Amino acid sequence: MPILSAQHLNFIYGKGTPYEKHAVHDISFSVEPGEIVGIIGHTGSGKSTLMQLLNGLLKPMNGTVTVDGQDIWQNPKTIRKYRFQVGLVFQYPEYQLFDETVEKDIAFGPKNMGLTEEEIGERVLRAAELVDLPPHLLPKSPFDLSGGEKRRAAIAGVIAMEPKVLILDEPTAGLDPKGRQTILEMIKAYNQKTGAAVLFVSHNMEDVAALAHRVLVLSGGKEVLFDTPDKVFAQSETLQNLSLDVPVATRIMLGLKQKGFAVKDGIYTLEAAADEIARLKKEGGANA
Amino acid sequence: MIHIEDIYFSYSVEEDSEPIPLFEGLSLTIEQGSFTTILGHNGSGKSTLSRMLNGMLLPEQGRVLVQGMDTADEQNQLNIRKTVGLVFQNPDNQIVSSIVEEDVAFGPENLGLAPDKIRRRVDQALAAVDMTEYATHSTARLSGGQKQRIAIAGMLAMHPKCLVLDEPTAMLDPKGRREVLDTVRRLNKEQGMTVVLITHYMEEAATADRCIVMEQGKILLDGTPHQVFSHRKELEQTGLTMPAACQLAFLLEDRGITLPALPLTEQECITALENLLP
Ligand SMILES: Nc1ncnc2c1ncn2[C@@H]1O[C@H](COP(=O)(O)OP(=O)(O)OP(=O)(O)O)[C@@H](O)[C@H]1O
Ligand SMILES: Nc1ncnc2c1ncn2[C@@H]1O[C@H](COP(=O)(O)OP(=O)(O)OP(=O)(O)O)[C@@H](O)[C@H]1O
Ligand SMILES: [Mg+2]
Ligand SMILES: [Mg+2]
């Protein structure tokens, strides 16, 4: 059974006003336990809206969201429960951080789950360590952090709840390359250790190539593709028409293909590209 | 264009605690008409530095001169803000009006321009960031990337002599990222606008005239992209990396294949490989 499932989800902002926006249009997809799903789509394609529907922050006009087979809106009084099970890290950490200190901010979720002081303390330290947030920043006000430090704090706050579905809206935006690597590894480790499913929105095709088992592509509030990265990144023209792109490695291989080299398809990491170029060098490949 | 002369700056965390020094004798000159990118790990001081460039923050010691005007002199404040346009890291800190086109018009209005001129500038700026169809929308009801585009349009409409952008493409889709870069590159080339771009995308730095790498409030590396990106070790030690084309070149080196010169862009990489492969 899927851990998370969306069936015919629809969401309209400002219904009945001149600025009515059908932001999520009849979207259906399911996520299996332990799966990592990357979500890509142009600016304003409905990614953030969809993520907020999945953890019950927004209520769909129609359609259902189920977590572990349970319709999350069946009893609206219990909706809060799902916010702990489906943890969402917002696109802008400023929307999430609010407490006096970074430490209290990270502790907020676990506290609300009714954990003991000791457990809370442990979770805070573990989460901070996972996102590589230096301990000397814990007593600081979250508003006095740099952009990338804020993002790490916001992610730590959600990880500390140990949700069974972790949703991250552009988790690596604003991170330096090492921080980006750390967060990607953290997501992978969290997924592997806890078996939690992970959904993450990204404009960075490299992130998606590195992490996702499947990729959901949105455009204009609609689902365009939902498939494995090699299938999705094989459609470079479609993606470019949707304001998206393929990873750099794929673009370089396509460039070589256009020059007449017989390069293999389905290459989307730099490692694989290097292996393929080495093969071409050895075996020759201009006979395409 | 801008001279930063031996500045000192620290943030005080709490009233009674020791302030933590960030800049301790930082000096830097930004040449008129240049295109400079600033790289650096999270918390290295990039945003703080950007706020020094238009006088939003003042150094504790040393001085910052914008076209000869000292940012510490209050009388220069208005002129400096007109000269140096700063796009913040978080667009929410920048957006002031509730309607998109009013927000973009805010800057030009404060310059005292005629209404028809303002109109033209707003339309141009919105078109440059592909947000024309949202002109009359509410700024509160935008997606993350749409807000970022509006914040950029607001500064473009001011036609500043120097444009400072703090991670302007962090939330944009790949096409939007390319368009924003093309726009600032064009303004730089065609109108001689001085551009300072802060970014975590190494690819964006690859095509600049100059590339500065910050580490803990200090300048670690400063030079052309080729010079800077040849310091692989230093970059990795400070938490940065190299453009993907360079990374590929190094992966090839591990496999016994050496390219004649280090490629910085995809195009350079493809050309080099074309010449090398049988
Ligand atoms: N308002 C503030 N009060 C106290 N400390 C601050 C404040 N703003 C920034 N700092 C600290 O100063 C240092 C430099 O911050 P700055 O925002 O300039 O970094 P940055 O290079 O822009 O980082 P990022 O890439 O994460 O945006 C950081 O360690 C940060 O924690
Ligand atoms: N509060 C709101 N009220 C009305 N319309 C909104 C609101 N928030 C978003 N929208 C609109 O709904 C559409 C989808 O927005 P959403 O934030 O889901 O996009 P997104 O895919 O996350 O974009 P981005 O990549 O820029 O973050 C956009 O066209 C946006 O203008
Ligand atoms: Mg979004
Ligand atoms: Mg910053």
Question: Which descriptors would you attach to this protein?
Answer:
heterodimer; A: 288 residues; alpha/beta; six-stranded mixed beta sheet; four-stranded antiparallel beta sheet; B: 278 residues; Rossmann fold; 10 strands; binds adenosine-5'-triphosphate
Outline the structure in words.
The complex is a heterodimer of chains A (288) and B (278). Chain A is of the alpha/beta class and 288 residues long. Chain A folds into two domains: 4-98 and 154-244, Rossmann fold (3-Layer(aba) Sandwich), CATH 3.40.50.300; 247-288, no CATH class. Helix content of chain A is 40%, strand content 21%. In chain A, the strands form two sheets. Chain A has a six-stranded mixed sheet, sandwiched between helices. In chain A, helix 3 (102-112) packs parallel to helix 5 (147-159) and helix 4 (117-130) crosses helix 5 (147-159). The model of chain A has no long low-confidence stretch (mean pLDDT 93). Chain B has a six-stranded mixed sheet with strand order 6-7-8-3-9-10, sandwiched between helices. A four-stranded antiparallel sheet of chain B has the order 2-1-4-5, with no helix packed on it. Chain B is globular, with a radius of gyration of 20 Å. Chains A and B meet through helix 5, helix 6, helix 10 and helix 11 of A and helix 5, helix 6, helix 10 and helix 11 of B. One adenosine-5'-triphosphate sits between chains B (11, 13, 22, 40, 42-48, 89) and A (144-149).
